[in-house]
Amino acid sequence: MASSPDVSSTGNTPGNPGSGSPSEAPSSAGAGGERRGRVRARRAAVMAVPATLVAAGLAVLTAQGALGVQFAVSGMPFTVTATELRGTGFEQFGALDNMAEGSPNAGDTGGQVLVVTSAIKHATLDKLCQSVDLGGTNLLITAGSGADKVTATDLTTDSTELSGNAAFDNIEIGNDASTLTKAGVKGPIGVFSQQADTVRIGNLRQTNYATTAGVFKLPGLKLRFSDSGC
Amino acid sequence: MPDRPRQGARRAFRGWRARRPFWGGLLLALGGGEILLTEKASLKVVMHIGMQGLAGYLLPTLMLLLGLLILFNPGQRLFYSITGVLLSLGTWLTSNLGGFLLGLLLGVTGSCLAFGWLPDQEPRVSRRKRRRQARAARAAAPEGAGTTA
Asked: Which candidate from A11, A32, A70 shows the least CB-CB separation from B134?
């Protein structure tokens, strides 16, 4: 860019380095005639500083559990663990997840994964840990390890693996998935399903393909990259 | 580097790029795209959650559009970039913590670059060169130093 400008044309620039004034000095003849649009650092900072403050504020409020965030993830497998999950309004049924057309995760599955869909109306999770394998490194999200627990409403997960010590209240097993009522999600007709009023799962471990939650409150949020997953 | 002869297409692209906040628009559009990639929840679930679930898609889509508008309609870049930075910050709440932070950072950076961009600027001169030239100017013509400093 700096194509050896002569002294006369740039002699005035030290007077206003980086100032946003568009007033131009008589330099049209010099500088090789190359005049481009440029980012002025001070002008950009006018927006960058408040934006950074707001972003930091959002992160802090989320980490304190004051602000709920929404999640909608799918198409890539990720692991969720929690030492304890308590929920009211629980449903579970089998389903078939379709990946996006030509997804690199499809492999030899033809782009379809058999999953167990679990829906929980209100859930409380203790020591939540969520990790996504990004190839070589893991994105790790942990929350709720302090006194405050992670809470989620309308939590729906499509899992390929689910393990833990479960206890249910008022469970109905063998319903048709299209007649479920407890959590407000209806499955496909003619599929085995179960539902319960309350659920409690200790040492939960799920491998998920999709998660959505209306509102997730994540007190004590930590977002980091790590070599090992959950 | 800049004086190397260039082919027509590359030269034209360079000129086109010089007349708009290229990196700002590109980063904002990329940020929106990244957030959209991280959330591909099936439409049925989104409908179940309702308006909140829809916002998770609406915000990154608008980010993508605004990034493209900054590229193709740079005259309105102030409005686009201010809206873009607000949307980018909003995706923290609606869309997977802003596409797991990455899309949010891209969007905010892009918006700030677009906001700080001004057309028709002096060619960039490195600070050391500028200082050296100022010194040379002072030494050569002391009466001219009054206007510089």
From this structure: A11
A165 within domain boundaries: yes
Residue numbers of the domain that contains A132: 68-226
From the list B49, B82, B108, which residue is nearest A212 (CB)?
B49
Q: What is the pTM of this model?
A: 0.69
Task: Delimit the domains of chain B by residue range.
Answer: 14-118, 122-149
The pLDDT of residue B81 is 93
pLDDT digits (tens, 9 = 90+) for A84-120: 889 898 888 887 766 666 666 656 656 666 778 888 8
ipTM: 0.74
Estimate the crossing angle of helix B77-94 against helix A41-63, to 10 degrees. 20
Find chain B residues with C-beta within 8 A of A3's C-beta.
Answer: 2-3, 123
Nearest to A69 among B2, B92, B117 (CB): B92
Instruction: Give the residue, B131 or A185, on which the prediction is more confident.
Output: B131
- Element housing B99 (H / E): helix B96-100
In a domain, A174, yes or no: yes
Establish if A8 belongs to a structural domain.
no
* Contact state of B123 with A22 under an 8 Å Cβ cutoff: no
Alpha carbons A176 and A188: distance in angstroms, whole number: 8
CB contacts < 8 Å between A and B, how many?
A: 196
Within 8 A of A185 by CB-CB distance, chain B residues are 45, 48
Is A10 inside any structural domain?
no
Q: At what angle do helices B102-116 and B22-38 cross, to 10 degrees?
A: 160
